[in-house]
């Protein structure tokens, strides 16, 4: 039995079988955002900066809603590993109710707070006022896609949990390809500018949600809200939301500091950050495999196999991160020009680029081990890890960069401190193995 487990884990086939479809799903949304960034970037530095701020605020919905995907994957995977597929799908039903409620709440809050939040993040001066106006206009429309974002996250969560990874590929690609065609048409020939970008975003998110909800309905399980399961999901969600809130605080602070170095710096930060997000989600495909496999192994009472899988996952994350670093490094002369023709934006992007490239291998390990710990339900530790890295590492570094006027390179150095602290703490926790607790709940 032991030799079979070791051979299965060492081959990596189970990891690849789940990671590759997840990679397509995870890449589709940020790839669309990159297309949107390129489309808007050719309107000029100020519209690009407005998209940067508005998109950063909207991303709070997805980041805060990540527990709907990650938490649901772990819980559904444990039930699936224990032989209860129906129970795994019901976890998806409860997550979808939470998604709908959270999405509608985000729409309301965005309409109320779009103006003051955009102006606070953009800073003062005439340039800041122009950036804030564009961000507000974009956000008020794009916020209506929040329910769709969260419903798709919930759908991905339960499907990953039952290891049904092919249908999400079709759902997400269909929606994003349609909107990738729609965005340039609305922005340029239709003359809608930033408004056209926002409408294309809402279109993609709504279509994706409809497809995931249809798949859930086809399972013919009980659709009623179950208070006990909702409370359990919210308990997991509390820790994951605190974790993601601290990460969102990091990236929002980075955007705010970059904005104070000027429109070119903020535009360059938007380019580097969206490419970073794209690479991060590619790396997260390994973490998705970890969530499904670790959850299923522990649900089936196989902690030894779970620990062996965790080791393989960490190695796979490092290799993937190094490969992406090589590609991004080689692309430095051409990638910024895809998104903006402004020479000032190009110069600013090169200040962030060495940090961007150097952090990718470290991030590959960090994100992979995050997947291991989420699959094991060790979300309390992840919450504490991220809070420590934010409060003791990133925030002091980022505001020191502002005070010392270190520019965009200083902003990305702060992100480097954040990643390095997370790496040290996550590796230590994984090696000790206290997270490998068997059981279906």
TrEMBL record:
Q: Which domain of life is it from?
A: Bacteria
Quick check: keyword Endoplasmic reticulum in the entry? no
Q: Please give the chief subcellular localization of this protein.
A: membrane
Q: What is the lineage of its organism?
A: Bacteria, Bacillati, Actinomycetota, Actinomycetes, Micromonosporales
Keywords attached to this Swiss-Prot or TrEMBL record, sorted alphabetically, are:
Membrane, Transmembrane, Transmembrane helix
The record's listing under Pfam families reads:
MatE (PF01554)
Which residue ranges run through the membrane?
Answer: 51-71, 92-114, 138-158, 170-192, 198-219, 313-332, 352-373, 385-404, 410-428
Q: Which organism is it from?
A: Actinocatenispora sera
Regarding protein family, the annotation reads:
Belongs to the multi antimicrobial extrusion (MATE) (TC 2.A.66.1) family.
| Entry's Gene Ontology cellular component terms | plasma membrane
Output the Gene Ontology terms for molecular function. Answer: antiporter activity; xenobiotic transmembrane transporter activity
Classification via InterPro entries: DinF-like, MATE_fam
Name-wise, this protein is Putative DNA-damage-inducible protein F
In the bilayer, the protein is annotated as: Multi-pass membrane protein
